[in-house]
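Final report, Chapter 2: Outcomes

The project's central promise was a pipeline that accepts a single protein chain and returns its three-dimensional structure in a standardized token representation, suitable for archiving and comparison. That pipeline is now operational. To close this chapter, we reproduce one record exactly as it appears in the project archive, with the input sequence first and the structure output second.
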Amino acid sequence: MNIYHLSHIDLDGYGCQYLTQNCFSAQKNTQIESYNANYGPEVKARLEEIITSIKREKFMGKNNIEHIILVTDLNLTPKEAKWLEKEAIEVGAKIQLLDHHGSGEKTAQQYIWYKLDTTRCATLITYDWLQTHHGFDNENNFAQIVKAINAIDIWVSDDELFEFGKVGLGMISGAREINRTLFPAEDRALKLSLINAMKNHLNKENAHIELDNNLHQLKKEFFKQDKDNTKDNLVALYVTKLLTTDKKRLIIEYRGAKGLLGYNLGNTSILGNTFLVENPDFDFYMDISYRGNFSLRSNNKLDVSKMASEIGNGGGHPNASGGKIKDYRDSFVYSDIKAFVQDYIDEKTV
């Protein structure tokens, strides 16, 4: 059985995936692929990725596998649901949607696979579904972490775990060290590790304060590879390793110089310089934000102040500059961002 799990990008959404990962990863002959989306067009884009993944499995001759598309903490419009059902029928997949947003009521009335319960958070709905249909949680007692997520997500302020859930909510929204557009699997792994740490703090006295106090160290433990260091340096080394492994996919060019394009990574001084030292075959490093602002770094191979001036009315120093791309068009698909930036650079340097 293959599970394709699409969920939201907040504590509740990742809470659903925390449960399914713990449930299905322990089951024989079951594989789970996870996807995340915010509301809007990204939902349809991720569903298209899932359908493509199933088609790929079919093309490779794996026709005896049951495919289940699981959507949690996201509501679909009637148009999206109609499209998904049609595509699922064509590839022979089952659909299960578990959500609690009232905005999905009209769609829920039309599809038997659309389970809507506005009285509980999606993590709690998913927990009950896993218990009923997949024999989940006979030993590890996930009930308390589910209760904490439910308390904060639907704002049960008098619940004993409300304050604990509040810390968890900020913990996930503040986990921005890894860009999910560039590295979705690693970003998800960070967030699920933090939710697991949440679960492990539940038996502590003043658990919400203990969790809040320990957040910095919990993140350091995730990013630590060999030696201890500051959190910023550990993150830079970790992300640099990801960039280096995937650098062929991230290459852009400027007047014959080879660069790497990051997206909304931030921390450019440390990350850019670390990457260039580790990868001397690259001439520059560029990180662009969702607003079109960019930062440039070089390691004495390219005068990026001239590059910034030419492509973005920017400037700075030969090894550290920045600017902004006019009429930048953002996307949640990295290949589209890279194509836009490269085309823009090419037009400016004709």
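Archive annotation: DSSP finds 13 helices and eleven strands in the chain.
This record, like all others produced under the grant, will remain available to the consortium after the project formally closes.
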